[in-house]
Amino acid sequence: METVERVLQFVDKYVPLFMERRDHGGGSEPLFVFVCGPQGSGKTFTTDAIVKHLGSKYRVAGASIDDFYLTHEDQLKFSRTFRRNKLLQGRGLPGTHDIALLTQCIENVVRGKEGKLDIPTYDKSLCNGEGDRSEFRQVDLPLDVFVLEGWFLGFNPLLSKQEINSHPLLQGGGDMVQVNANLLFYKDLLWGNSELKSLGVILEADDIKNVYQWRAEQEQELHKLKGQGMDDDQVKKFVDRYWPCYELYYEPLVQSESFGSVATLTLGLDLQRNVISIKDRCIE
Known about the structure:
Elements: H1 2-24, E1 31-36, H2 43-54, E2 60-64, H3 72-81, H4 99-111, E3 115-123, E4 132-141, E5 145-150, H5 161-166, H6 175-189, E6 197-205, H7 210-226, H8 232-256, E7 263-269, E8 275-282
Parallel strand pairs: 1-5, 1-6, 2-5, 6-7
Antiparallel strand pairs: 3-4, 7-8
Helix pairs in contact: 1-2, 7-8
Organism: Zygosaccharomyces rouxii
Protein name: Phosphoribulokinase/uridine kinase domain-containing protein
GO molecular function: ATP binding
């Protein structure tokens, strides 16, 4: 609960300021709130709390980057196409999302015309824990605030030949080379998009290895709620595919404190998800 309280204090500090400046200037552009953190750190719970909290004053909608995963059928085709890349065997990493659908959603939010926004919903318990898209939900446009959460939001790909050639995970045309290239699209569309005004929330694990326990707890809850999901061995193998991304991008993001273009909140969390540090940095 302390995490949510700190985050709500942060959005209450900056959202009204943004809206006042926007309205005073005659603008209508939405504010994006990006929430990043390791799997199981509480991103979805925090995002839902932000949407509910701001919804009494503003036109708000929220989503997860996971909602935009490829359908199970398309993911199987994608995995076969890149069968030599073990990191792309199954959902999760940059490149395994429906890029056209994600782009269309963001463009519709930014355009701000009256109408309906279709947001996909992804059910991770389907297909024996491999997951599949389940349905779409509609929200009214235009929006004042759009909240998007995801484990790799804010991760910045290595771009220079010197950076790429000097990192063991990217040498010799390994599996991460393609993932690193895929990540550039997400950055350009979202947190690196100069046309978007955004707040960034980073849930920082005091030990990134906490993700194994946190992710296992998530699957245990899925079993209780829906009767299916991954077992502990599957969870470990699942998180192992994500690990190179954490090695490459996680610490630079945390240290940068510049996730949002307007302001960034970094909350340090221990294994029990207690807040142990707070950093609030205003960019603008």
